[in-house]
Amino acid sequence: MTMDWFEYSKKLSTLLLALTLAACGGGGEGDDGGNTGTGNAAPTANAGADQSVNEFDVVTLDGSLSADTDGDSLTYSWTQTVGTSVTLSDRNVQMPTFDAPDVTAATSSEVLRFELTVNDGSVNSIANSVDITVNDAGLGANSPPTANAGSDQTVMELTLVTLDGSGSSDPDGTPLNYVWSQVSGPSVTLSDAQAEMPTFTAPDVPTNSPATLVFEVSVDDGADSDADTVSIVVMETLSQVSISGILRFEHVNPNPNCNGLSLANPEQRPMRGVPVELRTAAGVLLDTTTSGEDGSYAFANVDPQLDIVIRARAELQRSGPVSWDVQVRDNTSNTSLPRNQRPMYVIDFAMNSGTSNVTDADFLAVTGWPTAEFDNVRAAAPFAMLDYVRQAMDMVVAVDPVVTFPALEIYWSVNNTLIAQGNSDIDAGELTSTFYTSSGLYILGDSGTDTDDYDDHVIVHEWGHYFEDIFSRSDSMGGSHYIGEPLDPRLAFGEGFASALAGIALQEPLYCDTSAPLLTNGFGVDWEFDNTPVTLVGWMNELNVGTFIYDLWDTNNDGADNSSIGFGPIYETMVGPQAATTPFTSVFTFAAGLRPQLSSADRAFVDAQLNRINVDTPGNFDEWGGGQTTVPTSGTFPAGRDVLPYYTTLPTNGQVERVCLNDDYLNYSIGSTDYELGPDDSPNKFGLFRHFRITVPVAASYTITATASPAPPPTTDPPPAQGEPEIRDRSDPDLFLHRSGQWFAFASGVSGAADSEVFVTPTLAAGEYIMRLQDWRFVDDQASSDYPTQTCFDVSMSP
What we know:
This protein is an alpha+beta fold and 799 residues long. Helices cover 15% and strands 28% of the residues.
């Protein structure tokens, strides 16, 4: 009989207790009360390592590693506890043997478990077990086979079809017999129903009515059998198929407060109006089309079962009454080529044309931005930027259905990184910002510093400069600036107009520049509200200009903005009067060109918006700002000085006109008193220039003189050390002549004594001109530290 472990444990515990008591004694007979006895330690059983054997193998159990610490001789007792019962050669020896039983594939491997107990003559060990895994070796009882009728197939009618039972198998390696039979579908004749791979001819099926044929294969090894089925779908034969679907890209919205992008929640938008190409897998162009407004595309007459590529090009092309051509290229790739020939971004989607028409070949260009990684291909970015520009062009088309947009290149790369002001290498991706020039838009893309891929307002803002340059006129000198700074009115209008245009095109007043996707130093401006409580309010503030133009368009009633003139009059003003104006472009020229187009009610509405930003609108309001009497002031910025009249009339008869300039706002920041030119600043601030209006009566050459009055006092700076540049403490007036916004002659060197400039002009035709005066010393990095913040000049002009 066998004893269970619990009962065995109780008996062993009782025995050990009795031995302990006997060893310790109790003061009874024979106890001398002073010596301590020594007990016998239990031996340790070791049944050997687990084994894996084949059926019918002779297996040896191994208890040779059992031991007794007292060195006593051991006796052995083996007992089987798990598995098919086997007969041990001798259950009381150290290494008995047995024959492994027969196992089959049906039961797979079988585990036999044996326990070993050893005894040292007085104490039994704790039992130890060993597992013997017995594997089927194809011996003894038969292992049944497994049938495999092959994979389901889709085939064309009247083609030869091969059924495939070659995947069937027998674990014993016994050759199989095959029997094929048709279970369902139009009846066909098999070439050999007992072959491993019989064939048949697919039946003719009706148009648009595929048929499904089901076949069963039964395999046997002479003793056991198994069966499996396969489905064959028979399609109408198509000499060619059509492929259609929808192309989309992922757009990423900004986080709250414009701090980074919400990368985990992209939204899908259609690729509208992009060229779509059908190519072979080897790259051979087969056909082209253009995606629809919903991103849809379609190709007909495609060869069936052909490996193809659907390629979307990052380009907008349109011809006819409205035409455009916008391309997104990598300015950092193949730099030996001219920029407008560098690689255009494309995205390829591979597929097989199959054997029937495909209507759901939908593909998505993804951002490539998991939440915290930036090393993937950012395929969606070029198509996102295209779509933002497309929205801007749609805005124009809505009011001008026969407009032609000159070609525009957008240069973007993941290598386009932000660097400080100064020299930059665009081919290496070094940009001082995202910007527009006559050669195209240049967009930041370095995800570690600043990316503008999904800053839709930033993209359309720069497109607004393209619009102003191509369709209207911009006299802005550009340069670095910060929103809210008092700027030269030319720059203030250009920047404010471009930002307002972005809000109008995107129909969203919140302008977001998110910086890098995972950084939190982005910023936003809401053009719906007056954001200028801490800066000068007026024609020199791009915030004022932007809110003014946006409020002319929007329909929200937010107090003073209680009406709308729509985009049409804004567009007509920009392409008409603003483009042809004689003075520099500014909010004055824009408003002067806009007002005559409007009804009296709309004109009153516009005047109210102008008054809100300190632009006066008396009866003699004109493009020169001649009616402006309000001097801009603010509780935070210094009050504007030396700014009115905006244009000083300069007679040609030698009469002297005295004007003053200042550097009050050069590198000025809120709460700061530092007005000096810094490394990231530009000479484009309010007060640095004075403008003259000149009417030339007859063609002639004229002499223009500008003399400091009074001359700046000598500097108290110590002399420069040897080898250091000189310290400049004398004024340096520079004169620039313009006509229709273009300067054509200038004098910027010292002509005669310091503190004056004598400019002999080329022959001037009769007509109106503008002259711009600046004191170079305000922006000269070698100017003395105590150079005055204001200089005044006597200016005269004579034949």
